[in-house]
Design a protein that fits this description.
This protein is mainly α and about 90 residues long. The protein contains 4 helices and no strands.
């Protein structure tokens, strides 16, 4: 049986901030990348197809990452895979 822990004060606010940050990472990254697609295409001298493919590959990797990190968090706990995932991102 699990025991509940009570989080109060600054730790509670810090936890809320961290959870909000982690929830906002993917939407923020796509919102920053979309306006720059034309500049990326120009900088890398590639076609529009390949620049849009880079965005599609991000979404595929994001989906596959959830499939990978789920079992890892069951095995190692949630903290270590989260820290490694945020550091890789």
């Amino acid at each position: 049986m699990q025991t509940s822990t009570k989080i109060t004060g600054f730790k509670k606010l810090w936890l809320i901030f961290i959870l909000a940050f982690m929830s906002a990472v993917a939407p923020l990254s796509t919102d920053m990348y979309l306006p720059a697609l034309a500049h990326v295409q120009e900088a890398f001298a590639t076609s529009e197809f390949f620049t849009q493919l880079s965005l599609a590959s991000f979404f595929i990797a994001f989906a596959l990452g959830q499939l990978i990190y789920g079992p890892l968090s069951d095995f190692f706990g949630r903290k270590k895979p989260l820290i490694i995932g945020i550091a890789l991102f």
